[in-house]
Amino acid sequence: MIVLVDLLVMLLDLMYYILRSMLRVVLRPRTKDINGELVLITGSGGVLGRLFALEFAKHGAELVLWDCNQTTNEQTAKLVREVGVKAHAYTVDLMDRDTIYRTAERVRSEVGRDVTMVINNAGVVAGRRLLDCPDVLLERTMQINCHALFWMTKAFLPQMKAQNHGHIVTIASTLGLFSTACVEDYCASKFAAVGFHESLSHELLTEDGLDGVKTTLVCPYLVDTGMFAGCKIRDEMENVLPALEPHYCVKQAMNAILVDQPLVCIPRMTYLPFLSRALLPWDANVVAYRFMGADKCMYPFIKAMEQRVANGHANAA
Ligand SMILES: NC(=O)C1=CN([C@@H]2O[C@H](COP(=O)(O)OP(=O)(O)OC[C@H]3O[C@@H](n4cnc5c(N)ncnc54)[C@H](OP(=O)(O)O)[C@@H]3O)[C@@H](O)[C@H]2O)C=CC1
Ligand SMILES: CC1=C(/C=C/C(C)=C/C=C/C(C)=C/C=O)C(C)(C)CCC1
């Protein structure tokens, strides 16, 4: 009897949440006020990281900026300060767990208060075919795109839980939801990031009295930042699904973060391949990928990367 009541309640809840999600597409819910929040962004010297920093600054948040590239990170900090907002830049190599923990302690003592939002944005890709790729580059992708999420969460979640207030954002990728050829390291790390993020979100939901700690998973399609320069699908398909403009991508991600949306795929159309991967047979997806030129979309990217390595503009080791 109890199970039937539970089933009925579950079905009603299920319908409520489906309807609410559909309505939210049309009627945007109220955004939360992040004025005064202390927001930490990793990879803040990069293209999306910098744009995130500027967006959060516009909303009045104080910023903690982490990147391994001191020059570009300081430039981001300068731009943020020009908006009239406080920014604290730290040079951090996310491959090193101890550095993450030590810098988290430094932030606590130097800034004098707890980080309330973490935007895990730093990411890398080897850009080589698996068999041509030096092992250290494969390991680097896993360390930065996946392992760093463990250490960042262990460093900053305890204070959020203690205050029952916080937000953890994972910038994953559509390549964490479906895959293509020649980006094995990247897909492995982004699928791992998606799995990590989802499990963490479930864990927070099962803990009583922790409804104040939110999570958002951001899965963008190809963005025109240079990270995947050369990546290309069939011309005709590119008219339907062009590379995202970085500002647009960050705006869409911000819209989701500010309404505590658990998942956002950018653009919306990329929910389709995510669904088709789950629902259609493998071979059906393969022929669809071939038709769209998605099977070999990374070939020109790999070629361009080989060229950059040969010219000494990219990491050979
Ligand atoms: N561009 C795209 O098409 C897409 C990107 N994404 C994801 O968005 C995020 C941002 O990408 P994007 O802005 O394009 O890339 P960028 O390369 O412009 O930015 C990444 C930043 O992370 C920094 N970084 C790299 N390694 C480390 C490290 N060990 N420790 C600290 N910082 C590090 C980089 O420093 P530096 O390079 O100077 O050494 C760079 O400043 C990534 O997670 C990426 O996977 C998701 C979907 C699509
Ligand atoms: C595989 C695939 C596609 C192409 C995906 C591409 C080109 C993704 C690139 C993503 C990047 C570079 C993400 C970085 O994080 C389509 C056309 C959507 C159709 C379905 C299958």
Task: Give me some keywords for this one.
about 325 residues; alpha/beta; Rossmann fold; binds NADPH dihydro-nicotinamide-adenine-dinucleotide phosphate; binds retinal
Shape: globular
- Biggest sheet: strands side by side, in what order? 3-2-1-4-5-6-7
| Weakly predicted, low-confidence segments | none
Bound molecules: NADPH dihydro-nicotinamide-adenine-dinucleotide phosphate, retinal
Largest sheet report: 7 strands, parallel
Q: Which class best fits the helix and strand makeup? A: alpha/beta
Q: Give the averaged pLDDT, no decimals.
A: 96
Text of the CATH class: Alpha Beta
- Give me the CATH architecture, please: 3-Layer(aba) Sandwich
Strand content: 5-15%
- Compute the number of strand runs: 7
Report the order of strands and helices.
Answer: HEHEHEHEHEHEHHEHHH
Cα-based radius of gyration, to the nearest Å:
20 Å
Catalytic activity: all-trans-retinol + NADP(+) = all-trans-retinal + NADPH + H(+)
Keywords: Lipid metabolism, Membrane, NADP, Oxidoreductase, Transmembrane, Transmembrane helix
EC number: 1.1.1.300
Main location: membrane
Structure, explained:
The structure is a single chain. 53% of the residues lie in helices and 12% in strands. The chain is of the alpha/beta class and 317 residues long. It has a single domain (32-229, 243-278), classed as NAD(P)-binding Rossmann-like Domain (Rossmann fold, 3-Layer(aba) Sandwich). Strands 3-2-1-4-5-6-7 form a seven-stranded parallel beta sheet, with helices on both faces. Strand 1 (38-42), helix 2 (47-58) and strand 2 form a beta-alpha-beta unit. Helix 5 runs parallel beside helix 6 (184-206). The radius of gyration is 20 Å and the shape is globular. 36% of the residues are buried. The mean pLDDT is 96. NADPH dihydro-nicotinamide-adenine-dinucleotide phosphate (NDP) is lined by residues 43, 45-49, 67-69, 72, 92-95, 121-124, 144, 171, 173, 220, 222-223, 225, 227-228.
